[in-house]
Amino acid sequence: MIQPILLLGNPQLYETSEEVREEEVPEICRLETDLHDTMMEFRRIYHAGRAIAAPQIGVKKRVLYMNVGEPVLMINPRLTFPDSEQMEVMDDCMSFPGLLVKVKRWKRCRISYRDREWRECARELEGDLSELLQHEYDHLDGILATMRAIDPKSFFLRENQR
Question: Which of 31, 145, 151, 158 is deepest in the core (most CB within 10 A)?
Answer without folding.
Answer: 145
